[in-house]
Every structure is written in C-alpha cells, then in structure tokens.
From TrEMBL:
It catalyses: 6-carboxy-5,6,7,8-tetrahydropterin + H(+) = 7-carboxy-7-carbaguanine + NH4(+). InterPro entries: 7-CO-7-deazaguanine_synth-like (IPR024924), Aldolase_TIM (IPR013785), rSAM (IPR007197), rSAM_sf (IPR058240). Residues 30-209 form the Radical SAM core domain. Its cofactor is S-adenosyl-L-methionine; [4Fe-4S] cluster; Mg(2+). This is 7-carboxy-7-deazaguanine synthase. Binds 1 S-adenosyl-L-methionine per subunit. Binds 1 [4Fe-4S] cluster. The cluster is coordinated with 3 cysteines and an exchangeable S-adenosyl-L-methionine. Its EC number is 4.3.99.3. It comes from Pseudotenacibaculum haliotis. It is an enzyme of class 4 (lyase). [4Fe-4S] cluster binds at C43, C47, C50.
Length: 209
C-alpha cells in the first residue's frame, strides 16, 4: 500500500469501506429506527456463525476518505451506525468527531476486542468468546447484546453482564441459524431473568439490508 494511504488510515482519515446503506436498525435498543449504516472491513475475531464473513479481509475493501463517508451519510440520516467487520480495528476518532460536528449521531456495533476510540452517542457491545472485550471497553457500553448459539452461551452472557455498568441495557439475541431452537429458550430465560430483553434480527424478517 502507498505510504500516503497508510498514513491516512493510521490517522483514521481513511477507512476500508465495505458498504454503506440507509436502512432500519434491525437489532437491539434502537430497533426500528432509520439509520445510515457504514460497514468497515477487517475482523479477525473469527465467529464461526458470523453473518458477514465477506467483511473479514480488510484488503478486499477500498481505503475511502472519512470526509467522503461523512458528506454522503448526512444526506441520508441524522444517525449513523458504524459496524463491520470490527470497527475498533481502526481509529474512529476522526470519523466520529466529524460526524458529530455536522450534527449526526454516532452509534457503533462492536465486539470490543480492540482498543477503544471514537466519540459515541450509542455504544453497542457484543462480546465474543474467541476474543474478549478489552477491560477498558466494558464501561463504554450503553447496550450489551449477547448472541445465543447454544445453551452454554447463557452462562457466558451472565459473565459479561457482570462487567458492564449498571445502566447498560441487556439483550439476548438468537444466532440466526439456530433461531428455531434458541428463541424459545431465550423467551423462557428472559421471563425467568427479567433484567434481560429479547433482541431479534428484525431486518432479516423484513427482508431489508
Ligand atoms: C456482523 S457484527 C459487526 C460488528 C462487530 N464485529 C460485532 O460483532 O459486534 C454486527 C452484529 O451482528 C451480530 N451477529 C453476527 N452474526 C450473527 C448471527 N449469525 N446471528 C445473530 N447475530 C449475529 C454480532 O454479534 C453483532 O452484534
Ligand atoms: N438493518 C440492519 N440492522 C443491523 N444492526 C446491526 C447490524 C450489523 O450488521 O451490524 C445490522 C444490519 O446489517 N442491518
Ligand atoms: S466479531 Fe463481528 S464481524 Fe467479527 S466475526 Fe464476529 S460477528 Fe463477525
Ligand atoms: Mg448485520
């Protein structure tokens, strides 16, 4: 890669952009809210059930100027969701400051496995067993969204819930390929443990991005 491009990436002024789209937030606390999604490439957390494996190899996604991403995003929405891939693999400071300076709210979807950066109006933390969140990240979480793929994941969810702040909203979300089996178990679990809420990937039911 050219040195100038690498420098801009290091400064967070360029990011490997996989896709951007205006849709409805399908999951978690802000379900149902219109938002512009920015999907940044690169992830090595390695979830075997990941629903965007095409995002993993950052080299497949062209380095794109953050200023261009911002000027495009604000045409669509006053709320941007930055996801991936794993957005915290990259410095989010410049992108989020620029969005906020133009009156756009910044939301993130992250595993928390990389160094914290960015200024966030909403921080959704979705921890993974293969690469746990860094200690510094738990206190940032406005929302904890645990994916339930099998029964053992309830225990992991409780362990992770003990690490976030008391105002963090707690969600259990069925892993999509196991939803027929796990959703009824999540429903029972939430009725028995009402500090949790159910989150569904509603965009997949609606057949929207
Ligand atoms: C694709 S990830 C990208 C952001 C970040 N890498 C993360 O995992 O939080 C976006 C959200 O989708 C969730 N997710 C990914 N694959 C899923 C699946 N098969 N079923 C349910 N949720 C899934 C993740 O846990 C995360 O909350
Ligand atoms: N509609 C919609 N809502 C989402 N919420 C989180 C998503 C993600 O992939 O991060 C996502 C997504 O891909 N589409
Ligand atoms: S951390 Fe997120 S993007 Fe990375 S593999 Fe897991 S679900 Fe996919
Ligand atoms: Mg998704």
């Amino acid at each position: 890669m050219k040195q100038e491009v690498q420098e801009l990436i290091d400064q967070g002024k360029m990011l490997p952009l996989m896709e951007e789209f205006y849709t409805i937030q399908g999951e978690g606390f802000h379900t149902g809210k219109a938002a512009y999604f920015i999907r940044v490439g690169g992830c090595d957390v390695g979830c075997h059930w990941c629903d965007v494996k095409e995002s993993w190899n950052a080299e497949l996604h062209p380095p794109t100027l953050a200023d261009e991403i911002v000027s495009n995003a604000k045409k669509y929405s006053d709320t941007v969701v930055i996801t991936g891939g794993e957005p915290l693999m990259w410095s989010m400071d410049y992108l989020t400051k620029t969005l906020q300076s133009q009156g756009v709210k910044t939301h993130i979807e992250t595993s928390g496995a990389y160094q914290f950066s960015g200024t966030w109006d909403w921080f959704c933390l979705s921890p993974k067993k293969t690469k746990l969140p860094l200690d510094e990240v738990y206190e940032q979480a406005d929302e904890l969204k645990m994916i339930i793929h099998n029964k053992n994941d309830f225990k992991f969810a409780e362990e992770q819930a003990s690490k976030v702040g008391k105002d963090c909203v707690l969600f259990l979300q069925p892993e999509w390929s196991k939803k027929e089996k796990m959703t009824p178990m999540i429903v029972d679990y939430v009725m028995d443990n009402p500090k949790w809420k159910v989150s569904l990937q509603t965009h997949k039911y609606l057949n929207i991005p």
